[in-house]
Amino acid sequence: IGATPVTALAESAGLAINNGIAVDSRLRTSDKHIFAAGDCCSFPMALYGGRRVRLEAWRNAQEQGALAARNMLGAELEHTAVPWFWSDQYDFTLQIAGLPEGAASVVRRDLGGGAFILFHLAADGQLLSASGIGPGNAVARNIRLAEMLIARQARPEPSELTSSDVKLKKLLAA
Ligand SMILES: Cc1cc2nc3c(=O)[nH]c(=O)nc-3n(C[C@H](O)[C@H](O)[C@H](O)COP(=O)(O)OP(=O)(O)OC[C@H]3O[C@@H](n4cnc5c(N)ncnc54)[C@H](O)[C@@H]3O)c2cc1C
Question: What is the pTM of this model?
Answer without folding.
Answer: 0.92
